[in-house]
Amino acid sequence: MAADQGGEALNYIRGFDRFILPDDTPNVEGPNFPISYGSASSYNFADREGYQTDFVDEAGTMARIDSMLERGTGFIALLYTYRSCSKSVPQVKSQDQENKVELYQNTFRVLEPQINKLKNLFSFVNECIDFLLEEFEKLAADSVGGKKSSGRTTSSSDTLIWKLVLLLDLLSKLDALKNMKGCNNDLSFYKRAYGFLRKNLEASGLTDQTLDNQEMYLFLANQNIITNTLKQKLPQVSRYTTVLVLILEHCLQRWTGNLFLYPEEKHALLRVIPFSIFLYDSQDPAAPNNAFKTKEFKVLDYARLLKRYPVLPLYGDMAMLSSSFIERCSNFDPKVWEKPYENERLNIEYCIINRLPVFRSLHDEYLADFSARITEVRRILRAGKMVSQKIARLLYGLILKGFRILSNMTSAVLEQAAWKFSNPYGDTPADRNPDDVIQYERVVRYNYDSRERYCLVEVIAKIKGLSQVMLRADSLLMEMMRRRVHDEMQQFVQSSLRDLVFHATKKKKLIRASLMQMRAMAADWLNGQEPKDPMVDGKKVTKKNPFKLQIPSRCAGPSPTQLQLLRCIISSLYSGDRKGKSKDLKPDHVALLKSFYERSFFYSYVLDFQGTLRGVTDLAMLWYREFYLELADADQFPIEMSLPWILADHILQTYAQNPAMVEFVLYPLDLYNDAAEVALRTLRQQFMYNEVEAEVNLVFDQLVYKLSETYFNHVKVQAASRLLDQEYRARLASTLPPGRLDIPRSRFEVLLRQRHCQLLGRSIDLSALVSQRMNYALRENLDYAITKFEAEPFSGIIELLESIKNVREMHRIMSINVTLDPFEVMLNDTADSSSLVSFHGRIILHAVFELINDVVPNMMYSSTTERFVRAPVQFGEDVERVPMPKIPPTHQFGTRTLNNAYATVFMRTKSFVGIPHFRALFDIVGIDRMGLVIAELVGHIRRQLENKAAPYITTLLDGMPEQTTLPRHSYGTAGVIGFFEAKLDPIVNYDGIQEVFQAFREIGNSLAIFTILDSLAHERATLGFTRLAPFVDASPLTNFGFNDEHLASTIAGIRSTIEATINTSLFSELPQDAIAAVRLYQFELNNASLTRYVLLDMAKGIDPHRNEWMGPPSENGLVSVDTSYELYRLWSALQFTFCLPPRGDAKFAPMDIFGDGFCFGGLALVYLMEQADLFNALDFAYHALNVDEASEAKASDEPSRYLLSRAAYVRSVNDGVLGMLRATAPLNTKVARDISPPADDSASFR
Amino acid sequence: MAEVQRDWQHREFIESVTVNVLKIVEFLNKFDISTRYRLSKLNDQLSTLERRMDSAEAQLSTVFQQQQEGHNE
């Protein structure tokens, strides 16, 4: 039943493979999974009795050391994270303070738990020292007389000595931590409170603590008390030095044999060497144990080893100088103890930047190798085959190699940090006051230069990335590795050992018992029964004694105790020089044992795959800074001083120089994951976790902010340089330092596709966060552009168009990586033009405002250039605009170079308003949304006509001379001009003449705008038509007429092609739709011009005045040649005035103020009054010109020449205007009348 | 002696359970990551739609406003 259920469950688990779980997120973060499952189990040798070996006692000792080490870790955490409470405890200031009792009571209550922890530490240290003395005693006895003297059956193993090494290391660490922390202050407060409350407390049953407290005080106040006490007490053990030598030798052996894996193990080893030498060295110079002269060990070997490691990581942000213990030795002899290498060499050794190339090639090669193997294994398993022994062996080696690579990189990083801690940055940054720079900044913030930061990030990324890849293969490898270890071990125990057993049995050697113990405790017999092997009985396998060994394969590693005990036995066998067993062994037997011993050293690491990976990649200590917090007397440092943020920030800050690094930006944040893990599991301090969490919250906000900013700026530069005119860009680039105008390449994609980053167990959707910000930033950018336009005259519309184009391009680029709203929606939202019922919006409103309030009243139109330029004298009111917004350069065109490049472009169109500006308006607003512009301009013309022009005309008509017969040619030019000036004096000197000009200019300028709009509309329509032409069979050669049939057949052709491949009915209505669309277009193509529409509207405006402006009917029934009551006469007078030079103290002539718009306005009225021909025939200025042209002696006086040149110009403008008017709004042709010439000349002399 | 042998068997059973629990955990992690990925995409689409709805609503409200104004007049 149960088996059935098990089988069913396994089937389900196998079924997981069938699920397709897509995840299109590139992997750029450390090994963090939502759920982690640790499978390592430590029984702390609880099952030691089950294996009947001689090492049961020793296993007991080791269990005890292990539990001490565990407790010790707790005390290390306690000391390291100790924050003095007394700082926040209020003090009793004077003896007669009222609340004195209450204060003391509360002080006592608050501090008691803290002090109790310290007291526990004190007793733990004493316990440890006593325990060490005890163990030293045993070991010393062992080394003298073997089992007889110690009463033990075997000698101690390597493992035990290693545990002692760890215990010594623990004590030295505790000592260093205690030195650093100011626990003493708390104790002083506590003592004072206790002293005051003593009687009360004793009365309530508490025992007297005074002595305890005094002892505690000495313990806490004295530096190095733990190590010194140990050193003082050790001589109580006779021959303790032999044990220390044993320990030193063990360290050296491990070091040379590479028998360590975790960085912490490596560093413990190196830390214990100087400590042991210190313990060895006698304080008495006469004693034989002078570490620097002794022959028991070669101190030089150790000195040489430590030359390379003068600085070692101790704990967190604390580094240890290996010389500190050595120099405390009484017999310290600098001549014997070699000094560390020179600082330059150490710098090269410690700074990982010099090892980066090696790390890189190791990592890359390994990653390729590992991935290939894993893929191979998966393929084999998918094919339902078994993974061969050979591959399993290869993989086992590969895993170990991976551990080693990771461990080397991690310890290099930690050692570099320690080196930096002990070699602070000496200078002061330019922007800082040397007194404000705290020590932690000198060792971290300023101590890593840019290259080192990059390097550190890269190594962290390699460590975390590789461990992630390895962890992902966990379940796959776990099964195989357990089987591999089992099989290798059984091979050794059941097969390799046979020869030894045979040899030992035959020669009746002592070691047989140990060998048989090994077989008994470690073998996994086939079917649980030990086979009858003749070799075990000392007989050879022959035909008579047949035997075939069969070793079962099993997916189960040895239990930790089993493995440990097996190794104990082996080590006691072969390293038995000091125990006399090894002479029982042949050299190849020693080699066999030794090789298995060394191989099995790594079994436990491989079996605890996950735990080991965590151990060799733990970089949490790069974050911790309790030591420096204590130094600086600070609660916490700001994030600018925190290494993870320094690294992440550096990548973003220097994105332009090194864009490829941006893919690594999440790796430094993984240090927070490590730090939080340590806070929760090792330090077990909630407040530490809270501090990590608080920093992460801050850092992540900053990261998203900076990342978004960098990304935005990057895309901005990309878009701006891409949109810059290519030829211009090339020429400009040749004048600038290289690379300034290059289009940068984007490396953000990987980061922007992160939809689930793991940070402190939370999953963060980076992509969504950045998208959100980009949606906002693009809108903000558009808003800046529009606000800038609103603060500028109409010529700013070119810049607005470029800005919008730029944002549109940015939108296009960004859309590849992030989800954005459609650009049109963004633009409409920002420009407030999303209304369905009106075409209003910020852009169009401001455009209209500018046209009517600035362009029309304040600018001069030139019909030659079709441009408006600002008049030297302003007539309209000052235009009030919104204040110019302060736009960050990132929201313009990205960089200073680009901003300048674009500014130069805009300069070209800043000083005038013309076709480019109106084209830009069309581009932005769209031709179909121009309604408001048109309506407002038409309205403006009507208003000018009604309110200004018409009343002035009425007034001025009154001032016209009764008679204005054109004077004869014979007067000469000057005479003619003089005649007009005299005749037109009331007009010329009319007070309000400037306002009259202004009214006509405004009408004329508005009309000029319409002509420009018209030409642009035609341009568009033509463009549209050229695009449409192929569909309606129009070409320059065919006689174009709308040909629905052709269109239908074209569409039908397309449709059938589509339908041949895709069966769809979607296209059935396509031909009809297309035809409808064409009709719509056709309408537009033949659309009447805007100008015509405006002129017709003006004509309606004129209607009420028509009679007045026609003047009285002429006496001759044709034309009143001599009187001047008609509009065109008045216009001639105004035009004449217009051509005159500046009068009085005026600086500018009217023509230089009002431009061609004046002519446009007046002439349009004259034309609409159907008086254009008369005007041409009888105009005053024209007459003067005609006279001058006809006469042989040209006028030479300055005023006449001035007037004539102006008049000539006006005539050419007028011709153009009239031509345009006739073309756009032809009037009804008048019926020709026959007029007989007069009978005689009498009429002309009247 | 037999204890040691039985221990091997027990451990094999425990290991087999452990390995399979690990496989379940791995699956759950993959599932979690994949689900988050898909939810994130969905969330993107939804928030874009939401914003478009907002903008459409704003557009539509201009029509109602005008109707209202027309009514009042």
Automatic annotation (TrEMBL), chain A:
Q: What is the protein name given in its UniProt record?
A: Serine/threonine protein kinase
Share an example GO biological-process annotation for this protein: regulation of actin filament polymerization
Q: Which residues cross the membrane?
A: none
- The entry's keywords: Kinase, Serine/threonine-protein kinase, Transferase
InterPro entries per UniProt? CYRIA/CYRIB_Rac1-bd, Cytoplasmic_FMR1-int
Gene Ontology CC: cytoplasm
This entry's Gene Ontology molecular function terms read:
protein serine/threonine kinase activity; small GTPase binding
Q: Which organism is it from?
A: Thecamonas trahens ATCC 50062
Query: Its domain of life?
Result: Eukaryota
- Tell me the Pfam families matching this sequence: CYRIA-B_Rac1-bd, FragX_IP
What are the residue boundaries of the CYRIA/CYRIB Rac1 binding domain, all occurrences included?
A: 58-310
Q: What is the lineage of its organism?
A: Eukaryota, Apusozoa, Apusomonadida, Apusomonadidae, Thecamonas
UniProtKB/TrEMBL annotation, chain B:
Q: Which UniProt keywords apply?
A: Coiled coil, Cytoplasm, Cytoskeleton
Kindly give the Gene3D superfamilies that the UniProt entry links to this protein.
1.20.5.110
- Gene Ontology MF terms: protein-containing complex binding
One GO biological process term: regulation of actin polymerization or depolymerization
One GO CC term, this protein: SCAR complex
Q: Which domain of life is it from?
A: Eukaryota
Note whether Cytoplasm occurs among the keywords. yes
Q: Which family does it belong to?
A: Belongs to the BRK1 family.
The protein in question is named BRICK1 protein
Q: Which organism is it from?
A: Thecamonas trahens ATCC 50062
